[in-house]
């Protein structure tokens, strides 16, 4: 094979094997990335953008559950803190978002930084904290759903969402210990 403009031999183009995370990401998209799933994933993405949907739910909880208003507001503040922490980590790590021919990007993002997933962070923090206030584990089902949505949309690697979920859980568990102290301190 030759390039006619240069008349020199050209090696056939064989793409290098994709890194494991890119292969996993592409496999997830191929397995569950149909039109309906993409529509749901985009909706989840918009809901979770800048943690605004989770913050709004915290405000609703505070408005509806007047006896535990302070707990809801502090929990929403912890969700905002978790989101901010993920952004801080992104700015230090500076891992770029997936950019590979095997990966289809299905939604725009406010930054080009990927690690960790802020959506996974704030979703996990909200699920743990609000689930505790509701005395239910049911909110935890949104964690894997949001994590999967980030893969389906092609905007995060698997380790981005796993680390984001871990960061969100860590912030939420710390907040669960601190919030009662803050409320007791304020009341005294």
Automatic annotation (TrEMBL):
Main localization is membrane
Classification via InterPro entries: PAP2/HPO, PAP2/HPO_sf
Give all residue intervals belonging to the Phosphatidic acid phosphatase type 2/haloperoxidase domain: 73-176
Pfam entry (one) = PAP2
Q: Which residues form the signal peptide?
A: none
Q: Which CDD domains match?
A: PAP2_like (cd01610)
What's its membrane topology? Multi-pass membrane protein
Q: Keyword annotations for this protein?
A: Cell membrane, Hydrolase, Membrane, Transmembrane, Transmembrane helix
Q: What is the annotated localization of this protein?
A: Cell membrane
Note the superkingdom of the native organism. Bacteria
PANTHER family recorded: DECAPRENYLPHOSPHORYL-5-PHOSPHORIBOSE PHOSPHATASE RV3807C-RELATED (PTHR14969:SF62), SPHINGOSINE-1-PHOSPHATE PHOSPHOHYDROLASE (PTHR14969)
Q: What is this protein called?
A: Phosphatase PAP2 family protein
């Amino acid at each position: 094979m030759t390039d006619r403009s240069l008349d020199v031999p050209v090696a056939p183009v064989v793409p290098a094997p994709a890194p494991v995370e890119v292969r996993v990401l592409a496999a997830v998209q191929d397995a569950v990335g149909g039109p309906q799933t993409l529509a749901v994933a985009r909706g989840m993405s918009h809901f979770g953008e800048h943690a605004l949907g989770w913050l709004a739910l915290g405000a609703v909880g505070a408005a509806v559950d007047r006896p535990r208003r302070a707990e809801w507001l502090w929990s929403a503040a912890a969700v905002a803190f978790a989101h901010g922490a993920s952004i801080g980590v992104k700015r230090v790590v500076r891992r770029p978002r997936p950019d590979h021919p095997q990966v289809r990007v299905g939604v725009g993002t406010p930054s080009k930084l990927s690690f960790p997933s802020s959506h996974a962070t704030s979703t996990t923090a909200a699920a743990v904290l609000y689930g505790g206030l509701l005395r239910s584990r049911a909110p935890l089902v949104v964690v894997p759903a949001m994590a999967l949505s980030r893969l389906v949309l092609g905007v995060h690697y698997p380790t981005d969402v796993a680390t984001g979920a871990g960061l969100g859980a860590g912030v939420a568990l710390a907040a669960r210990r601190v919030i009662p102290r803050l409320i007791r301190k304020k009341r005294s």
